[in-house]
Amino acid sequence: MEYRVIVPPLGESVVEGTIVKWLKNEGDTVEVDDALVEIMTDKINIEIPSAYAGIMRKHLAKIDAVVEIGQELAIMDVEGEVIATKTFSTSSEPGKEKIPQEQKAPVPAEEFTEAAAHHRCEGIHANEEAIDDGIKAIKSSPVVRRLAREHFIDLRKVHGTGKGGRISKNDVIKYIDARHTVDLVTPDFQFPDLELEEIIPVTGIRKVISEHMVKSAFTIPHVTTFDECDMTGVIAWRKKYVDKIEKEHGVRITFMPFIAKAIIFAAKDFPWINSTFEDDNLHVKKYFNIGMAVARENSLIVPVIKHCEQKSLLQIAKDMRDMADKANTDILKIEEITGGTISITNAGGMGALASTPIIAKPQVAILGVHKIVERAVVRDGEIVIRPILNFGLSFDHRVVDGGYAVQFLRRMIELLEDPDSWVLGVV
């Protein structure tokens, strides 16, 4: 029986994606839950699994084609009785769906759902066909496949120590270490002649990020205000309690949870900072879903820590650590990178002293955090050395005025400079 594969929902506010690679070629046998195609959105890469077993008859969309939710991707020949299922289609209004249309499909497996579409999230595939063949030939986890692609490893050459010979992340790491050791002891090695210029096509996730940043930068009138914060109080608090907390709870509280809580308290007086601007309406949020930018090689992803207003410093620290781990191993779910109300980006972790971050549309503000530097400052008429952190707050000038943003940032800094007035109540 003929079954037509469609693009399922790809996440909040996502209405289209780009086909990165067909994982099942025409004529290939397909089992239930086999990945059929990899689709890239402006948020994450998604592998679409098959709900049915059968044969891939025909691809209806080519690699690099932009496809919308509900669009037909391929035709499969499958076995089973005929039932009626629903397909999705987009309306002219972004982010909304039309009434589903009927389509014939077989019985055996579950209907496509958003959860199924998000079953696997993987990074950018290496271009070498031999490497891809080796990766596809071996059953492995998304983390293992990602490592293999990043280091150009044919998994058929890796010895698996897991159950039934399954290859684990540690197996790949050992293979990488062994390969590097061999490289280091190879005698008489000479670097090949290098060309004076290398041309690298901007494709894949890098292309999506560039398009998203251009839309944000040219749609939102960005303004950035800067202010400096004396971190003496926060540093002293951490020095006093952080080791004890880590010993008892297994998590080390960094500066970021303090900053997140300071944002929440300061926004009580300046609530428009924690909002989104959509369809000429300002949606002022009564909850705080704080996005935390995580750099991954030459890409960026922003996991969202949900309902920070209800969480302690300790819980926010745990959530931030867990989300960063998921981002670095490419196992984030769509719901973990959507729904943000305000974002933080920490360029200071890489040594930056200042930056003008781009707002994550449709949010109206993003806070840039920078390196803490000891500087000479004047306190009570005397020159003293203090650890100073520069903040850069970018805001949407369509809905937030400069004075409003400046006062919010100053209030947030006042809270950080006097942590004893509030920290003990939110640990």
Can you give me a brief rundown of this structure?
With 427 residues, this protein is of the alpha+beta class. The chain contains nine helices and 20 strands. It has helices at residues 114-117, 129-137, 142-150, 169-185, 204-219, 232-249, 255-267, 313-328, 402-417; strands at 2-6, 16-22, 29-30, 35-40, 45-49, 54-59, 66-68, 72-78, 82-87, 101-106, 222-230, 275-278, 281-284, 290-292, 294-296, 299-301, 304-305, 342-346, 365-379, 382-396.
Task: Give structural notes.
The protein is of the alpha+beta class. It folds into two domains: 177 residues, OB fold (Dihydrolipoamide Acetyltransferase, E2P); 220 residues, Chloramphenicol acetyltransferase-like domain (Chloramphenicol Acetyltransferase, 2-Layer Sandwich). Helix content is 28%, strand content 27%. It contains nine helices and 20 strands. A six-stranded mixed beta sheet has the order 11-20-19-18-14-17. About 12% of the residues have low confidence.
The mean pLDDT is 82
Uncertain regions spanning at least 5 consecutive residues: 82-127, 182-186
Helix content: 25-40%
Residue fraction in strands: 25-35%
- How many structural domains in the coordinates? 2
Q: Please name the CATH topology of the largest domain.
A: Chloramphenicol Acetyltransferase
What is the CATH superfamily classification of the largest domain? Answer: Chloramphenicol acetyltransferase-like domain
**Structure summary, number of beta strands:** 20
**SS-based class:** alpha+beta
* Distance between the ends: 59 Å
